Amino acid sequence: MINPYILTAIVAAMLVTWIPRVFPYFLVRFASLPNKVVAFLGYLPLTIIFALVLSSIFTEKTGSLPQLKWIEAVAVLPTFLVVLRSKNVMLAVVTGVLCVAVLRLFI
């Protein structure tokens, strides 16, 4: 038997997750956004990728400064060059994974 409390929690979590992701599409469909908002939203993908890269090349511990992960930091360079040249994100991801694998194999 399904506990009504758990079912309510699941439905509430679904709505809380679904509404912020889907609701903006309905708003934009019926109204246009100002140019400043569109320009701001254009920077979001770059900002998200930058945050992911930074979080993957640094380790953080409470009470100490962030430490650089050298292997991952070195692997960022060829990955960045591949994405600049090819504009292919999947090829860049494969390049990054292979670079980290090769560096870990030899270092």
From TrEMBL:
Keywords from the UniProt entry: Membrane, Transmembrane, Transmembrane helix
UniProt superkingdom: Bacteria
Annotated protein name in UniProt: Branched-chain amino acid transport
Classification via InterPro entries: Brnchd-chn_aa_trnsp_AzlD
Keyword Membrane set for record: yes
Pfam families tied to this protein: AzlD (PF05437)
Transmembrane segments: 6-28, 40-58, 89-106
Source species: Streptococcus ferus
